[in-house]
Amino acid sequence: MRITTTVNGARREVDDVWEGESLLYVLRERMGLPGSKNACEQGECGSCTVYLDGILVCSCLVAAGQVCDRDIVTVEGLSDQQGLHPVQQAFIDCGAVQCGFCTPGLVVTAHGLLARTEHPTDPEIREALAGNLCRCTGYEKILDAVRLAADRLADTPAGSAGRLR
Amino acid sequence: MTSAPTKVPAAPSETAALRGRIGDSPLRPDGTLKVQGEFAFGSDLWADEMIWGVTLRSPHVHARIVSIDVGPALATSGVYTVLTAEDVPGGNVGLDHADQPVLATGVVRYHGEPVALVAADHPEIARQAAKKIRVVYEELPAVTDGRRALEPAAPQVHDGGNLLRHLKIRRGNPDPVAPVVVSLDFEVGMQDQAFLGPESGLAVPDDAGGIDLYVATQWLHADQRQICQALGLPPEKVRLTLAGVGGAFGGREDLSIHVHACLLALRTGKPIKMVYNREESFFGHVHRHPASLRYEFGADHDGLLHYAKAEIVFDGGAYASSTAAVVGNGGTLGLGPYNIPNVQVDCYGVYTNNPPCGAMRGFGCVQAAFAHEALMDELADRVGMDRVAIRQLNGMREGDRNITGQLIDSAAPVAELLQLVQDMPLPAERLSEDEFDLLSLPGGVSNTTHGEGVVRGIGYAVTYKNVGFSEGFDDYSTARVRLEITADEPTVTVHTAAAEVGQGLITVEQQICRTELGVQRVVVHPRDTQVGSAGSTSASRQTYVTGGAVKAACEAVRAKVLERASTMLDLELSELVLDGAQIVSITGDVVASLQDVLGTDAVDETVKWSHRPTYPIDPETGQGDAHVQYAFSAHRAVVDVDTELGLVKVIALDTAQDVGKAINPDAVVGQIQGGSAQGMGLALMEEIVVTDGRVRNPSFTDYLIPTILDMPPMKIEVLEYADPHAPYGVRGVGEPPTISSGPAVAAAIRRATGKALRRVPIRPEHITEG
């Protein structure tokens, strides 16, 4: 089947998609966007988190056929010509990245949290990130990164308007 | 290749405005790519004409293969080839002992053993075709219990019996007695490394019968050796490059897709990509050994240990992997960091028809620590002593000898580490019922309690772990360092084969080069087999051993540059210092630029570097200098337990660790945090449930690892007592936190509940029953 959809602001069209393929597979193997990660492929780890029409989803649980004419933003779409998004920079600065396999999903999830909640409390951060598994860090530096990103975003003149593309 | 010069010119002064030397915490060079999703992990690779490989695995625990019919699979549209054992040109593989066929040959010995391979132009077509392979099995009696495997009537997993290794330690009085005797039996379940990046890689055939393999792994050269064995090819035809590694923790030390992808690529002439899904990943790598432990400690009435007896059985599963070395660690270190004059240890590694077990972070020490720390608490209670004080009383100090008779010849701060964690502030008391936060309670937002039935407990544990490979292993690393001027700027390129698995070794290599050569710009070459072996990324050894090799290679480069300068300027070598872009005299005057000395040349040195030797232990007494170095850590856990439902919330997990020298302090803390989480996971939730040899929970739905809601805040104290035998004084960091955190959590739950809890992971029913 043919899938026509918008990914990171660009119209994309792919052919010969097998009906059983997930959005994750189509992004990774057919669109050249392997940033969303294949850690469990059953909705348990959050590594493949993307925005679908502005809502965070596990792309491994979305059938490719469901995304026709919809709007997808992946981790590759968070940074722009000006550079990294503050959430991405905070993950680097806080040492929240080790192997990095969970990182794209966590970055997108944290991006979503901060778009909804300007200054999340620690329990709010934990609850928002509870669906994202990380095996390397023990999560402490990920908490640090989300706190730092929240502070930096609050200092950004664009404020919340600059948060989501 | 040269050896390191004996007289080493001085390193550049520390006053230079250089960022990211050792002791700093520069950011990791791959961070930007990783946060953007642009970093190429093994599963992200792609090549023109690439097709997909999948594995057919055994549904049986132990069975004879009567016949295999690949016809229907091969006839499937889109399928390129189907391979079985007959198509493997070479011999068996195995990390220490080549006992495992690449594809099952006549018999399957565990649930999940690879039997056949399929290559097709879509992964789903390959999977569907694999299901059409008709394998007729005849089931055989199986042995699925480690202790039963040693009984004479047990089914034999391999010719030659089920005993893989029996390690004996006999020290002091063979018939010791003591006024206070405590004993226990302990069981440890099978833990999984559960790295997030699944086994993956890309094999690309060349047109001369050779292959390039890009793979996520821990030890490129051990892989290369085994692939060559299996394919019957010389090393120059089997070239490996490290693909991005999504965590390892021991689970990538053995082969996974390696030979399979190469076989399919060589047969089809096409690049083959293989990526396990999560279910296959649980079958596709070795796990932490389940263990059965029987311990007895004898002490005087003041709590001073007089003797210890231990019998440990590690279930190695169907193939050896690194079981013999795990037995080596479990046996020699399995009584913990305590002075014990009279010792009898029998440590066994056995074959069973369970899934193969091998390396996982903590490597044999993790299982033993649960037993010795539970028994220390028991002893403290029996003699009426504080649980920390009894550990301090018996704890090793520098200058003591351990149970194999080896001198502890650098810092052994057991008492100090315990004191540090004991003195850390405790978390606040539980909030009263009208201001509670569900997330802070056992059961969390499941809303199972508002504090009723919840009891708090505090537990302590301490451990020590060897760093590097032991018992006489030729443990070395190789580093190539090149210094040149590029675009008017001094540039260092560092090339090693050491696997970066997320721990940050590439950052450490850059820091060492900056420190030794005074050059800001350090390029890390991709890791491959074009340079000599770096040894395994395991045993907490890479900062020590590959760090040592990089340091030595830098010293060789520095010596060469200064020799050139000395000749060119007609100045005494001993009066010259290399300081980044300049050659400086010992009085501080700039005498030449590096550009003047090098011109368009590069200075390029390769050094093979070994740590001081270790020795095999005596087969009868277990005495000997088995290990290179020891690393110590202590944890304190605070838990709240819902005693009615058996649910546990870890409130705090605090730790102190001696790291010798923190090359990258932030990365050290990251290792301690992540390692502690894995130990906590084993105490509370992580187990591959194996029933009669069958794996019951191969998914992240049923195999649970700690989430951000499970992991408490941690207070961390890092000590830096330099080891005079190690480069910069470093001590391995990665493993100790995984060893002492779990026993501290278990101790805290025992304290809260008063239950014996002689098995981990501790499940709710263990807390509520009886």
* CATH structural class of the domain at 31-37 and 476-610 in chain B: Alpha Beta
- Counting DSSP E segments of at least 2 residues, the number of strands of chain A comes to 5
SS strand fraction of chain B: 25-35%
Low-confidence stretches of chain B: 1-6
CATH fold-level name of the domain at 31-37 and 476-610 in chain B: Aldehyde Oxidoreductase, domain 4
Strand content of chain A: 5-15%
Radius of gyration of chain B: 27 Å
CATH class of the largest domain in chain A: Alpha Beta
Which whole number gives the mean pLDDT of chain B? 96
Quaternary structure state of the chains depicted? heterodimer
Number of H- or I-type helical stretches of chain A = 5
Q: Roughly how many Å apart are the termini of chain A?
A: 29 Å
- Helical fraction of chain B equals 10-25%
- Which percent range fits the helix content of chain A? 25-40%
- The CATH homologous superfamily name of the domain at 31-37 and 476-610 in chain B equals Aldehyde oxidase/xanthine dehydrogenase, molybdopterin binding domain
- Outline the biggest β-sheet of chain B: 7 strands, mixed
| Biggest sheet, spatial arrangement of strands of chain B | 3-5-1-12-9-10-11
Which series of helices and strands of chain A comes N to C?
EEHEEEHHHH
> In the CATH hierarchy, what is the architecture of the largest domain in chain A at level 2?
Roll
From the coordinates shown, what is the CATH architecture of the domain at 31-37 and 476-610 in chain B?
2-Layer Sandwich
Cα Rg of chain A = 16 Å
Describe the structure.
- The complex is a heterodimer of chains A (165) and B (770).
- Chain A is built from 5 helices and 5 strands; from the N terminus they run E-E-H-E-E-E-H-H-H-H.
- Chain A has 165 residues and is α+β, with helices and mostly antiparallel strands.
- Chain A has 2 domains: 3-77, Beta-grasp domain (Ubiquitin-like (UB roll)); 86-158, DNA polymerase, domain 1 (Orthogonal Bundle), CATH 1.10.150.120.
- In chain A, strands 2-1-5-3-4 form a 5-stranded mixed sheet, sandwiched between helices.
- In chain A, strand 3 (49-52) and strand 4 (55-58) form a beta hairpin.
- In chain A, helix 2 packs across helix 5.
- The model of chain A is unreliable at 159-165 (pLDDT under 50).
- Chain B is α+β, with helices and mostly antiparallel strands.
- Chain B has a domain at 31-37 and 476-610: Aldehyde Oxidoreductase, domain 4, CATH 3.30.365.10.
- In chain B, a hairpin with a 2-residue loop joins strand 28 and strand 29.
- In chain B, helix 4 (220-231) packs across helix 5 and helix 8 packs parallel to helix 15.
- Chain B starts with 30 loop residues before the first helix and ends with a helix.
- The model of chain B is unreliable at 1-6 (pLDDT under 50).
- The interface between A and B is large, with 59 and 63 residues.
